[in-house]
Design brief:
Length: 184
Amino acid sequence: MLFTLICCTTYAQRIDTVKTSAVDTVKAKKETKKAIYGTARKAATLSAIIPGAGQAYNRQYWKMPVIYAALGGLGYWGYSNYKNYKFYSNNLRAENDGDPNTLNTTRYSSDQLITEKNYYKKRRDIAIIVGALVYVVNIIDANVAAHLKTFDVSDDLSLQIKPYSTLGYNNKLQTGLTLKLNFK
């Protein structure tokens, strides 16, 4: 009876050790995953709040002026098109409202004013859409760059392609290529 009690205790201790090592392995994997994806999430969030902040977090400082130049240029282009759109829109309204106190300050007719107004409206909308795309690409770039921080680019990685030949089923010669990836 004493022997049975000792075996059960030993068996229970062995299971706890296995559970502990399995739990430690799972914890280590979760911490590694959190370290990798947590930084990517933080970089993307920073870029979403302040464009270029995710790039600064990833220490890619050279990308910040590119982002601000693109957003600033598109903002200026959109604003100047908006001003022209409002100018032609107001002149079109003055041309067609029938009030003698409001005057069309351009030489354009009503049809020409409509054409000019639509032209500048389209260009303003394009500036807004491209600006939004630059903003989204800024966020995606920060996220991808943070993910690639942990990418191994050392010389310990190698890929080997070698021919092989062997006797296979029914003593027929089989030839081909083997692809071998080594992690050292």
